[in-house]
Amino acid sequence: MRPETKLQNSAAMANTGNQAFVYLAAIFAALGGLLFGYDTGVISGAELFFRNEFTLSTFELEVIVSGVLAGAAFGALIGGRLADLFGRRKLLIATAIIFAAGAILCAAAPSAVILVAGRMIVGLGIGLSSSGVPVYISEVAPAEARGWQVSLFQLAITVGILLAYLVDYAFSSIQGWRWMFGLAVIPAAVFGTGMIFLPESPRWLLRRGDRSAARAMLARIRGTGDIDSELGEIEQSITKAPESGRFSDLFARSIRPALVVGIGLAIFQQITGINTVIYYAPLIIQSAGISSASGAILATAGIGAVNVLMTIFSMWLIDRQGRRFLLLTGIAGMAITLCLLGFVFHRPQQTTGIAWLAVISMMAYVGSFAISLGPIFWLLISEIYPLKIRNSAEGLAATFNWGANLLVTLTFLTLVEKLGPTRTFWLYGVCAIGAGLFSYYFVPETKGRTLEQIEASLHTADHSSSRRN
Ligand code: BGC
Fold first, then answer.
1. Nearest one of 87, 24, 30 to 223, comparing CA atoms
2. Could you tell me where the DSSP H helices lie in 209-322?
3. Domain assignment of residue 397, given as a range
4. pLDDT per residue as tens digits for the range 13-63
5. I need a surface site. Which of 26, 176, 245, 248 has the fewest CB within 10 A?
6. Would you say the CB of residue 154 lies under 6 angstroms from ligand 1?
7. pTM for this structure?
8. 285 to each of 20, 139, 203, 257, 443, how far by Cα in Å?
9. Are 38 and 182 part of one and the same domain?
10. Does 405 contact ligand 1 (Cβ within 6 A)?
């Protein structure tokens, strides 16, 4: 074999090896998303049973359900700072331990108070993972694959939700709420063990001044020694912003456009009503006319499956079509299906046919979310911030997301009671129109650009050209 052919072959082998490694890194880190999905989805079934065992008042039940969201908002807020201080990898290992501890506490809870504590600890894990995982994956993924690799996080969330619905269903006959909570220990253990063997983010190592470790990690991740230009780009972006970011840096003039995009999408992702469907689907389906509990749970699992499948579809499209096209198309779908859902409840008489129309509208709505605000929010907030403040800014956006989630979850039933379901869904529809306008005017295209290029363009506030890209 000629030497150059040999060389080419070994380069190709290294390349295959490196791709496998990047996939592995992304998949393991995304398990943090699976736990996020599982632990938020599991409550819908579990609450039916622990409320009997502890004889809870409505308020106590609300505290248990929303405790996890409050914990998550707090976790997301401090997660960014902790990831900057201790490194992305160490924080994710700690997150896995927190998830496992919370799950065990919930499963063994002798009283409602301990259950609340357990759910808050789980919430802390969810918040830490929601601010840490997308940043970790975006920092190890190559630019051309970053879109779908970060979207793995959203896919894992949807798989986690579906898994929770199925586990709830499987254990409902024995009222096994402790199993429902406790089984989360398994993915937590896999996630933590995987992260022990995965590399630290080279970008974080460089920022700490550890060039040789950063070089070695990047070479390991890319599977080639030919990484000098990438290393140079990262170094340049660090030289431009040598100081470690302070909280006040988040409000610097040059950061403002990115901050507005992140926080805006965080709020719109929630106020367009996704979790009213994710957490309350069986209830909505029953009130639309399918009275049997098992029928409602089955239809809910169907909605969970559509969520997973459409997320996979969006991962296939996201680095081809770009973020803006998917975002705008999906949001238009959400507005239309919310309007339809409102009409379903407008009918004076609920028939089985109407109930199925509600289920189909909900499936189309969740499918539209799954190609747009679902993955693209988490992706953009891992891409658009300069390295200096990336974690804090991402954490801030995630905190707004959890805060808005808490608000919508706590007010949904009251809104249905006061305004009726029709007006409530139309209200979310109006929010979807707002989300569409916001995305059209403010969200930049980031497809195929390195994080450093995105950072440079946001420094020059070059939105009009980035929008058209
Ligand atoms: C949202 C969650 C939601 C999930 C549904 C995520 O992107 O942040 O609040 O439950 O999508 O798939």
1. 24
2. 211-222, 228-240, 256-271, 274-288, 293-321
3. 249-469
4. 344 445 677 778 788 778 889 999 999 888 877 877 887 888 887 677 777
5. 248
6. yes
7. 0.82
8. 42, 41, 47, 40, 34
9. yes
10. yes
